[in-house]
Amino acid sequence: MNVIRTAIPDVKIIEPKVFGDERGFFYESFNARAFREVVGIDQDFVQDNHSKSVRGVLRGLHYQIEQPQGKLVRTIIGEVFDVVVDIRRSSPTFGQHVSVVLSAQNKRMLWVPVGFAHGFLVTSDHAEFVYKTTDYYAPSSERSLRWDDPALGIEWPVSATGIPQLKSVDAEAPTLATAEVFA
Prior knowledge:
Blueprint: E1 2-5, E2 12-15, E3 19-21, E4 24-26, H1 32-39, E5 47-54, E6 58-64, E7 71-77, E8 79-86, E9 97-103, E10 109-112, E11 116-122, E12 126-133, E13 142-144, H2 168-171
Antiparallel strand pairs: 1-2, 2-10, 3-4, 5-12, 6-11, 6-13, 7-10, 7-12, 8-9, 8-11
């Protein structure tokens, strides 16, 4: 597998080795030993999640303040514009983000470490997004960061209207300046 370093060293883009021919393809989407030795991720994953969304849906930017989760994310159908934001106040990259296109075609995965807000915008007609987490979902601990906070400078590829389809909690989320973040 190929590991692509990003502007934030803890965030990694992973390209699996894909074996394909006229019959289709095969690749290992997760191998604990390879992730530990090649990627540098030695985590126990406790939950797998799968979501389906239509074009223009933006899910995020989400995180859990207690029971924080590391996430290994990928798209198995369609395409998304994926974003992670460093919300560790003590980090030299606090408030910075990494964005990447994840698609069924490119088969890339993204490692989202603990201490980051995460979200994605569906850019294809529909997308199915799957991810592994390092801790369980804790609804009372879930927080959102405002997707269009000017301080973040995220250039979301939104439609001509400029407003994606959002859950109300995401539309009303606080900005980085007022959000509850990690120390």
